[in-house]
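Researcher: Let's do a round of design. I'm pasting the structure tokens now; please hold your answer until I've finished.
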């Protein structure tokens, strides 16, 4: 190597803006070993060492300790390899900065205090794996030990929050709200009740899976009734109830009678949990999916009508 391609610690400091003592310390730790020595015995560094130094700085700025940095640099690497590693590390750093910016914008919108700001930042900067683990823990705790609807449980496991690299403040706020929701004991208890109803249905022989068609039928029929101003306690509402209960009974192989109406009412009340709907809406906001319209008013009307007409 030509003599002008070698650099002293002082020259590295001027090129990188790092303090001489930091470069010397990293060199002493073996993270950026000298490429050679001058005739006077002073350390000299080549272009590979400079690339390695830049990577060490980025990894340290990302919060990695020296042992982790050392493991990342364990094997010899060329300048192109170091550049590729550095680019990957910068991608992580850029994503972290985007998250911090989104958190700060969310804080500015909400007027959050110091404690809430710290919590928001901690939750927002969880890794994708940590976010999935938080949701899977909720699903495992609620449904894991029950023979509940397998299609529903699989759907819950698959629908995990995936913050984009450059999230909006709304997405950050939605993730914070979702993380708090799945740790809320009251919501967990409500979800557990729903899981127990599913397990009871399975024990009674139900293997019918998910029922989006029934939900859509309820939506259409009740929306029309509400638009017409139909009172849930009225005679026209009784006809709607009979039509819908009959659809449920045929789907599940049951008979529309007072006993089945009471059972169905119990399950609809458990399913019409506002926080469960909020869970779905928050997840959609985080992942950039269309936010589904609320079914709460629809099922509230159906529940009220079913209570008003407990017998066929």
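Researcher: That's everything. Go ahead.
Model: Designed sequence:
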């Amino acid at each position: 190597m030509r003599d002008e391609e070698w650099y002293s610690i002082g020259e590295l400091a001027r090129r990188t803006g790092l303090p001489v003592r930091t470069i010397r310390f990293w060199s002493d730790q073996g993270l950026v070993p000298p490429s050679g020595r001058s005739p006077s015995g002073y350390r000299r560094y080549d272009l590979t060492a400079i690339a390695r130094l830049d990577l060490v700085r980025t990894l340290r700025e990302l919060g990695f300790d020296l042992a982790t940095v050392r493991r990342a640099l364990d094997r010899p690497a060329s300048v192109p390899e170091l550049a590729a590693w550095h680019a990957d590390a910068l991608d992580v750093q850029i994503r972290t900065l985007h998250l911090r910016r989104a958190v700060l914008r969310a804080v500015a919108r909400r007027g959050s205090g110091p404690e809430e700001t710290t919590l928001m930042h901690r939750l927002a900067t969880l890794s994708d794996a940590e976010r999935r683990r938080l949701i899977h823990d909720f699903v495992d705790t609620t449904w894991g030990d029950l023979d509940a609807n397998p299609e529903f449980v699989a759907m819950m496991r698959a629908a995990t929050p995936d913050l984009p690299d450059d999230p909006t403040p709304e997405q950050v706020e939605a993730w914070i709200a979702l993380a708090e929701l799945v740790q809320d004991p009251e919501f967990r208890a409500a979800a557990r009740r729903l899981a127990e109803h599913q397990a009871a249905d399975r024990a009674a022989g139900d293997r019918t899976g998910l029922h989006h068609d029934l939900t859509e039928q309820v939506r259409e029929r009740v929306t029309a009734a509400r638009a017409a101003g139909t009172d849930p306690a009225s005679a026209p509402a009784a006809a709607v109830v009979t039509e819908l209960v009959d659809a449920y009974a045929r789907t599940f192989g049951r008979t529309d009678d007072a006993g089945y109406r009471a059972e169905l009412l119990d399950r609809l009340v458990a399913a019409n949990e506002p926080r469960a709907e909020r869970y779905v809406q928050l997840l959609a906001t985080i992942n950039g999916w269309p936010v589904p319209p609320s079914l709460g008013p629809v099922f509230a009307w159906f529940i009220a009508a079913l209570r008003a007409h407990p017998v066929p």
